[in-house]
């Protein structure tokens, strides 16, 4: 059977943006920016996106496009009889780890979305506000799992429907819709009295932050939210034909990811500061702080509904790309149909998700790594170890295993200034930088 392909280059770009733009952009980026020098961090991050993110993104996509195979098969095809393919398993393992907790959190988002549709969450039901609502919900046994299962079923449905009919079509709808929803929310948030403080938190540059080493590590660490290192973009690249040029697409994807992160900040921080609340990040921000603000806001119920719809869409489009990595691998390895492969893989991830979910309830005392609960431990292994190793292998593979002319041809660059700069970055700078992030995060 012929390998599936994207219908258009735009379809591929939207799918790759869908992969990159996820929970990370919405609840992490702007908080990290605000706490690390605001506008100064934003500039530094943009520099990192251009200097490292986009060159690595280009590299990852090019491996897939050249090999037209999955994350393990690509190395086997391009470097036969070498151990390079082992590095593909970093991607397969991180996909299993990441999606099993991503689906749990996305399930929480669906639960909130549903309760905004019914109007139950326009005001926090019961005593204790949204802190009690959230804490009570995630610590139950079955209820959160029902929402995780529902989310996984949607992810599987889209992946089963195929690259073009499923993944591409879904992202062609989701991404413009997500942009529209977030822009509407940002305009509303900016119109609140006191929104200026939020803008200051996000954008006011504190140049002295440049003197702290941690800001560089933070900015570099954020790069992995571009979905680099797992093989999602490699797999998506494998459905691209050779006539679709890569450099422009890579720049577009990198810039749009940053755009979505900044827009999310414009939604969240003006509102947080307008209600004089201390900013936080992660699940407490979106599942406790924001709903508490929404209930005090004019039209807050509608704002909450739109927000959790957007959050669910962002999670869904990222989750699709994660499921596709092992789905493509098992389809080739066992000659399975897309349906069999994605249902099998998705079910295993759901099964792992049961442990993650129970980690907030009956197993809340289980802390596999340090004092981290089950979710944080899985996130730690995937984000701090497997993804950096995956990204490092891709850079070393293209920078050192390929000849320079092969590498340049793979990414559609010539041996000119641009090509030379990209090659130097991938060969020397990216590996050094990843090693720095790796060591400093351990
Ligand atoms: N980029 C997604 C986010 O920011 O939430 C998460 C993610 C998706 C990570 C796909 C890795 C990946 F391969």
Describe the structure.
The protein is mainly alpha-helical and 442 residues long. The protein has one domain: Hydantoin permease (Orthogonal Bundle), CATH 1.10.4160.10. The protein is built from 18 helices and no strands. The protein has helices at residues 9-20, 23-35, 39-67, 73-78, 88-117, 129-138, 142-160, 163-190, 195-203, 213-222, 232-237, 246-274, 282-294, 300-334, 338-358, 374-401, 404-410, 417-441. α3 runs antiparallel to α12 (246-274). The longest helix has 35 residues, at 300-334. The chain binds 4-fluoro-L-phenylalanine. 4-fluoro-L-phenylalanine binds at residues 19-20, 22-25, 98, 225, 227, 230, 232, 318, 321-322.
What's the short story on this structure?
This protein is an all-alpha fold and 442 residues long. It has helices at 9-20, 23-35, 39-67, 73-78, 88-117, 129-138, 142-160, 163-190, 195-203, 213-222, 232-237, 246-274, 282-294, 300-334, 338-358, 374-401, 404-410, 417-441.
């Amino acid at each position: 059977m012929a390998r599936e392909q994207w219908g258009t280059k735009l379809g591929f770009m939207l799918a790759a943006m869908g992969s990159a733009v996820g929970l990370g952009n919405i609840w992490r980026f702007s908080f990290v920016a605000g706490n690390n020098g605001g506008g100064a961090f934003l500039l530094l991050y943009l520099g990192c996106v251009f200097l490292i993110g986009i060159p690595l993104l280009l590299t990852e996509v090019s491996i897939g496009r050249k090999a037209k195979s999955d994350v393990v098969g690509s190395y086997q095809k391009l470097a036969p009889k070498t151990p390079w393919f082992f590095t593909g398993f970093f991607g397969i393992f991180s996909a299993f780890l990441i999606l099993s907790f991503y689906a749990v959190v996305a399930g929480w988002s669906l639960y909130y979305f549903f309760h905004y549709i019914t109007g139950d969450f326009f005001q926090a039901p019961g005593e204790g506000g949204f802190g009690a609502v959230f804490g009570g919900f995630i610590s139950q046994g079955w209820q959160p799992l029902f929402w995780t299962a529902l989310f996984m079923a949607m992810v599987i449905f889209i992946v089963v429907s195929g690259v073009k009919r499923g993944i591409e079509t879904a992202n062609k709808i989701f991404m413009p819709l997500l942009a529209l929803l977030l822009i509407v929310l940002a305009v509303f948030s900016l119109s609140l009295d006191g929104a200026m403080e939020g803008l200051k938190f996000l954008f006011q540059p504190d140049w002295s932050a440049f003197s702290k080493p941690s800001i560089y590590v933070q900015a570099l660490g954020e790069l992995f939210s571009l979905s680099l290192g797992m093989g999602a973009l490699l797999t998506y690249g494998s459905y691209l034909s050779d006539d679709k040029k890569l450099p422009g697409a890579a720049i577009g994807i990198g810039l749009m990811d940053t755009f979505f992160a900044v827009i999310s900040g414009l939604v969240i921080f003006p509102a947080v500061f307008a209600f004089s609340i201390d900013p936080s990040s992660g699940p407490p921000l979106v599942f406790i702080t924001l709903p508490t603000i929404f209930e005090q806001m004019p039209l807050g119920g509608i704002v909450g509904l739109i927000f959790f719809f957007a959050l669910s869409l962002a999670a869904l489009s990222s989750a699709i790309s994660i499921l596709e990595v092992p789905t493509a691998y098992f389809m080739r390895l066992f000659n399975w149909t897309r349906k069999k492969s994605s249902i099998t893989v998705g079910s295993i991830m759901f099964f792992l998700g049961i442990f993650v979910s129970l980690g907030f309830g009956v197993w809340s005392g289980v802390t596999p790594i340090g004092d981290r609960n089950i979710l944080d431990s899985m996130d730690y292994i995937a984000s701090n170890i497997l993804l950096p190793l995956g990204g490092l292998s891709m850079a070393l593979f293209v920078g050192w295993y390929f000849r320079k002319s092969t590498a340049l041809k793979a990414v559609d660059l010539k041996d000119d200034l641009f090509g030379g700069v990209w090659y130097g970055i991938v060969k020397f700078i990216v590996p050094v930088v990843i090693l720095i992030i790796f060591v400093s995060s351990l």
